[in-house]
Amino acid sequence: MLLSKHFRKYYLKYGLYFLVGIAVLIAVDWLQLDIPKLVGGIIDTLKQTNPDVDQIESSIIRIGILAASITLGRFLWRYTIFGASRRIEYELRNVMFGHATKLSQSFYSQEKVGGLMTYFINDLEAIRMSFGPGILMLIDGMMLGGFALYRMAALNLRLTIYAAIPMTILTVALVFIRKTITKHFKERQESVEKLSDFTQENFSGITVIKAFVREMKEAMLFKTRNLDLYDKNIKFMKYIIIINIALGIALNLVILVIIVLGSLLVINHEEAGLTAGQLTEYLGYFFTLIWPTMALSQFINIQSQAKASAERITKFLDHPLDVSDAPEVMDVENLKGELKVEHLTFQYPDGDSPVLKDVSFEIKAGEMVGILGRTGSGKSSLVDLFLRIYNLEPGMIYLDGHDIMKLSIKSVRQMMGYVPQDNFLFSDTIINNIGFAMDQPTEQDVTEPAKLSDVYENIMEFKEQFNTILGERGVTVSGGQKQRISIARALAKDPEILILDDSVSAVDTKTEEAIIKNLHRIRKGRTTIFIAHRISTVKRMDKIILLDQGQVVAIGSHKELMKTSPLYQDMVKRQTLENLVQGGVVNEGL
Description:
Layout: H1 9-13, H2 15-32, H3 34-47, H4 53-102, H5 105-110, H6 113-155, H7 157-204, H8 206-211, H9 215-267, H10 276-317, E1 339-346, E2 356-363, E3 368-373, H11 379-386, E4 397-399, E5 402-403, H12 409-414, E6 416-419, H13 430-434, H14 443-452, H15 456-461, H16 479-493, E7 497-501, H17 509-522, E8 527-532, H18 535-538, E9 543-548, E10 551-556, H19 558-564, H20 566-589
Parallel strand pairs: 3-8, 3-9, 6-7, 7-8
Antiparallel strand pairs: 1-2, 1-4, 4-5, 9-10
């Protein structure tokens, strides 16, 4: 049984279900052993010179009543024990998913999706089997086996001792083999995790694989990993087969002993032996005993698997929440969106050096600000800190005068709208993607945001329009459409602070200008932050913050930076030259 902290609470929560189910199961086990006794009595009655027909009919009626009672009882223990195991699986999966949503970005940078999915499918299934069939097999094996042995011993103690010897040897051997089964099951689960990781990555990157003509190479790598899983399965199943063979041999030996000795006792009935009916009754008890023996061996198998899975799930659930609310956290409402950064220095948990160094600036509520810089200058890192993706030292970022580390994560993120670089879209309808921040978005709720992000006309061209189902990660739409749908999603939230992280890089200049013009119009009085590497994206902003190598090197409007910042001037010249070269190439091609 699973008794670690993450699982034992369910025995208490669903204790009534388990107690009722176990009580009914024990009652059924006792009642079903009356059937061999009644059958044996019928045989002995039939052997009499003048059999009592009324007694035979009474026994048959009792067998019918017992069969009906056993059927009802089996329904009840299935409903209570198996029902409780399904409820535990449901609750545990919710707990695991809830924990997964709270884990930091650092965790997901080290773990792979395929591996995490094995926790929620294979490992959780093993836990459910432990709570359901595992408890059934333990109780049924012990109680039904005990009742059967008691009745067998009552009929003939010596014969029962002979029959119990090989069964005892088998039970001891199963206890010793359990650790080996657990080890091989854990290795099998790890192999499943690796294969899932590899398969998920290949399906997600199928376009890249085809573009680089790597189909055969990836197929060979898949074959290698699949062969590893095959080998692990074979090793695991060898032990299961050994158990089944040993069980079969032991049972056949016991059956042989019972038939030989029982026949001799029937022949010598007058010398304190057995009647034919009693031997039939004894065999009925023994054949009833076969299931408990198999059940206990299966219980060892199930518990071995569950133990390995429980260790993996426990490790996952015990992973600390690196980013969480402070002990004395504040929930502040009606924040206006004023940001102040003071001497901010930040290094990633697994990094070797700071990505932001002594950064200081201020964004007033309602300002439209551009954060500009070359690749690797720390722009996206700054956004992650605004969203509380990572922890900070106190007193480095203030939101409306409040230290961001003293505000609840929920209140900080609730006031922000975010358009990430990768423009992640869900495999859902366009209406649900745009209205993601709403409980039940309607077409009316998402139409205006779609128009503002200049994607409305594209959506109307689809056959199902807003009800169009997007493929995984939005593969059914172009890069520019993904960006604009992501922008629409953030606008539909209508946040106090809107952050767009390089979110118009995949659209043409005309579309970019239209989107920025719309944002200037609808975002008056609300803070908007553009992270960009193109000058055209930020040149009309109220303020531009220029980063380089993790430091603020200049702050001002486009005109001011053109006069005061050599780096900004160089970036303008380079991008102007690039545009001229691209235009020349296009004209030459025409």
